[in-house]
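Q: For a teaching session next week I want to show students how multiple molecules come together into a single three-dimensional assembly. I've collected the sequence lines for a complex. Could you give me the predicted structure tokens for the whole thing so I can convert them for display?
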Amino acid sequence: MQEIQNALAKFQDVPGALLPILHDVQDALGYVPPEAVGDIAKALNLSRAEVHGVITYYHHFRSEAPGHHIVQVCRAEACQAMGAQALFDHAEKSLGCASHGTTADGQVTLEPAYCLGLCACSPAVMIDDVVHARVTNEKFDALISALDLSKVRVSS
Amino acid sequence: MSLRVFVPCDSAAVAVGADAVAQAILDQAQKHGIVMTVVRNGSRGMFWLEPLVEVQTAAGRVAFGPVAAADVASLFEAGCMSDQAHATSNAAPNVSPSVMLNSIKHPLSLGLTEEIEYLKRQERLTFKRVGITDPVSLEDYQAHDGFKGLKRAATMSGADIVKEVLDAGLRGRGGAAFPTGIKWKTVHDAPGSQKYIVCNADEGDSGTFSDRMVMECDPYMLIEGMTISGLAVGATEGLIYVRSEYPYAIRTLETAIQKARAAGLLGTNILGSSHTFDLIVRKAAGSYVCGEETALLESLEGKRGIVRAKPPLPALKGLFGFPTVVNNVVTLASVPIILAQGADFYKNYGAGRSRGTLPFQLAGNIKQGGLVEKAFGLTLREMVYDFGGGTATGKPIKAIQVGGPLGTYIAESEWDQPLDYEVYLGFGGTLGHGGIVVHDTSANMASLAKYAMEFCALESCGKCTPCRIGSIRGAEVIDKITRNQNREEHVILLKDLCNTMTYGSLCAMGGMTPNPVLSALNHYPEDFGLPQTEQATV
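A: Of course. Below is the structure for the complete assembly, covering every listed component.
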């Protein structure tokens, strides 16, 4: 895949290149395809197990394609103090998918987040790298309705 | 000079609509034929007032907030977005600012920004420019004392810079509060063909955002602090490890680094000297434990973020085995003012062995949430009531967690203790990174205790058993307590388990998770189904 070759060409000789490569691949494709593991391992002189181990260790990296939009809802203490649990429940219900799940139409993936650094304006949500705070159920629904559902790929 | 209007670009301001407000101001200005410049400044850190719009007048900046895009038209109609105050003050230079500003009437008017109590009562040393300048403007940074510290450091020996930081009494602001000067001295004295400065910007603690604000609102301060650190210990490369949850901070840092490099402030021959130092930003990948310095180094090396056993200290064998300074964002950001104003200036703030200031962060269920930089020594009660104004919901405060997810729920009997590293340690608390999360009476402390264990289970690196297994068993035991399944026996078991985690874990993740759990159990036994009188002891 060209995206993988691009990432390898950019970082292969940088010390500690694996995370930057994985980020570039995921930013381009939305996830790190399992078939990329072999190429990355070979380029960095690592075992496939080592690369797989890193991908699965970090919450940020995915091995499966997500929905076209990624909705992260903060579940950490400061947001909990302002009703984040109820907001998360609402998100699951209104999207019709569970935490880490994707809507049936493949449009939206719901992820928990553990702090977006917006703790004085809780509860907070991030949709495809755009932040929203003081989010109510109504505001959440409005944000989801406003998503461009014709988009074909996330940029994260 | 055209009218200058300020709308913050800080992500918390953007999250509550600042971009739309800025656009609405531009649209209205065009409609009214007013020539103005909209500056996207950093946030003042008064987040209940965001989006906070400021208008430059001769008397100083005048603030309006919280402004919604829909309010903008009315601000223009009321004459707020004009140089009216400017004209008034020119005409009558002896009129006091407060009288003069009476000419501007609007329900959202807050008067002169600098006169707002919340801001006026702070002691902003590290955050003195934050909210005032355009974060990526080098001109703004330099016009507000930027690079003064670096200019002085460039004329000093590494050992003298280290001594200045040591004498200032600066301690790690990430949470561990280790004396920064001692860490630097160790790296300075260590032999090494290569040394590194690593900035820990993996600010994962809920209730904290001071690192984020430094990166988004005053990135050159961090660049300057890291460069000084490089000069001090003889390192030529710096890496900033930023959480993936902070895309705005990453973008701002990258822009600032590019501009600094273009201006000769990074790279070779910094400021015309013989010094070399350069920086790169590395994006983290959503692992909380990577905020622990050795896990962070593993991650930077491209590995799983597994905690390393110490020794060897990172100061001696850190990144790729070379001597490495690992400091938090606010620690490094506190360095420029120490070098610019001298160790004595900084040391004169604070209490006991906690010298200088700490940017506290008021978060959660709080009426006036935001950033409060104060010298160590004021009390938690002053912080949450005088600054915070109580809860956002208006209900009484039930619990306050200080120091992030691994921090203690502070009993009300301790709310009048000074916020000071040693005092807090003395009663089993921790100041950590200065995060203060407030909960009202609707909070269930058994749920929060269980959450602390679940979070530890989710984020444990898995290297040591007390953390990896203990956290899972801990959540189960708390469930059994709340379900009244052999409650008394399980309380004993939970305390025993917490003891094992505290003393048997390799790092603070497992070692400090018992803080919120036991403090919740001890101070709020009724939430666990225990009689209030039968308070357990730690």
